[in-house]
Amino acid sequence: MLQTIDAFDRIGEENAFAVLARATALAQSGKDIINLGIGQPDFRTPEHIVEAAIKALKDGHHGYTPATGLLATREAVVRRTLSTTGVEVSPENVMILPGGKPTMFAAILMFGQPGTEILYPDPGFPIYRSMIEFTGAKPVPVPIREENGFAFSAEETLSLITPQTRLLILNSPANPTGGVTPREEIEKLVKGLEAHPHVAIMSDEIYDVMTYDGEKHVSLLQFPEVRDRLIVLNGWSKTWAMTGWRMGWSIWPDQLYDKIRKLAVNCWSCVNAPAQFAGIAAIDGPQDDVEKMMRAFDNRRKIVVEGLNSLPGVSCITPKGAFYAFPNIKGTGWKAKQLANALLDEAGVALIGGPDFGVLGEGYIRVSYANSEENILRAIERIGAFLQK
Ligand code: PLP
Question: pLDDT-derived band of residue 117, with 50, 70 and 90 as boundaries?
Fold first, then answer.
């Protein structure tokens, strides 16, 4: 028997991938499955982005790039950050990484070890907790409550900070809830953090432009008082429908930049070069496809919320961001994961049980509306028929 280090027995998973595998297997066996489980846009990457990658390859961009990313790609991120946040960052603080996840991997690895504590949202993206446990740090859940519109509460978050806290993970707009934390709450949080200068912040802003009803995403970058301890995670996956390209970026404070650069040198060397050219085209090219996708998501969001609220025992607040609804299913009498499993097996609808996003996810399921209006309506009908059985 090979003896790996204990950390590998503590590492978790993202159940969305397991559900996707099961749903795909069922579909391949001939079952009609509607997949509302997956967290990726159901649109194709816009054509001009694909063309830019092909052109880069034909132009001979097949080699290593700097570990931090091509300067041109980092400069594109600088332009994009300026246009979405109004904040000018330096390309010397921008890292290009293979997706959004490597930023959370690196940030959590930098601050987690036995004896330290890391705060993360619950319900929240499951990899936060998994990686915290991997490092041996104590995971401290920050409750994300329905009665609060699934936003962070500054007061509750601050109350969980101890002298052992090393990192606070924020996420807005949020997976799995679609919650958006309002400006006044972030202002309160930043003010409160002044008393805790030992706490670094990782703000996961990967859904930054995915907001609705005039709601505006507030970037932590807009608070210069925390810039020297702020890591902002972002990327191409969601906004430009590029999940499989593995293209992410993050903005790091001066004091951490060389550490992440060295981790990249040791681990993945660089992100593949043609994808980095595609990333520039995504940022600088026409945004019509992004706007089209967002209009489609907005329409589906309304259909999903209305449909879910028509189901017996189900209530769903209107999500303000991302492409997820997080309905409360407590009135159905079902445990969330059992309901998700039964819906896949018996109704052919793939969804994710709330507990896959943390203990406070019990009583909820995540519904991704990255699927056509027609399929969403069929799924609601099937869930309704199942619940009335
Ligand atoms: N952060 C959040 C909140 C996400 O929902 C996801 C993907 O689902 C990621 C990060 C990871 O993105 P990527 O696929 O680019 O690694």
Answer: very high
CA–centroid distance, 60 to ligand 1, in Å, is: 30
- Give the per-residue pLDDT at 14: 84
235 — phi, psi (to 5°)?
A: 170, 180
Do residues 97 and 265 lie in contact, with contact meaning Cβ atoms separated by under 8 Å? Answer: no
User: What's the domain range around 332?
Assistant: 6-44+288-387
What pLDDT shows up at residue 328? 98
Q: Which residue among 255, 284, 313 closes a domain?
A: 284
Residue 53 lies in a domain: no
Q: Is 173 in the pocket of ligand 1 (CB under 6 A)?
A: no
206 Cα–ligand 1 center, Å: 7
Same domain? 31 vs 69: no
Q: Domain ends where: 284, 313, 330?
A: 284
CATH code of the domain covering residue 164: 3.40.640.10
Q: What is the C-alpha separation between 88 and 85, in angstroms, rounded?
A: 8
Instruction: Give dist(CA 281, CA 284) in Å, integer.
Output: 5
| pLDDT mean across residues, the chain | 97
| Contact by Cβ (8 Å): 101, 234 | no
pLDDT in tens, 216-259: 999 999 999 999 999 999 999 999 999 999 999 999 999 999 99
Give domain status of residue 51, yes or no.
Answer: no
Question: Distance, CA 143 to ligand 1 centroid (Å)?
Answer: 20
> Does 220 lie in the same domain as 157?
yes
182 preceded by cis ω (within 30°)? no
The best mutation among 20, 105, 144, 175 to test binding of ligand 1, ranked by most ligand atoms within 8 Å of the C-beta, falls on: 175
Over residues 340-362, mean pLDDT: 96
Task: Identify the CATH number of the domain in which residue 318 sits.
Answer: 3.90.1150.10
Q: How far, in Å, is the centroid of ligand 1 from the Cα of 313? A: 30
Judge if the beta carbon of residue 101 lies within 6 A of ligand 1: yes
Please choose, from the candidates 82, 37, 345, the residue with its C-alpha nearest in 3D space to the C-alpha of residue 221.
Answer: 82
Read off the tokens for 231: 């890591």
User: pLDDT, tens digit, for every residue of 137-154?
Assistant: 999 999 999 999 999 999
pLDDT digits (tens, 9 = 90+) for 289-301: 999 999 999 999 9
Q: Are 209 and 137 found together in one domain?
A: yes
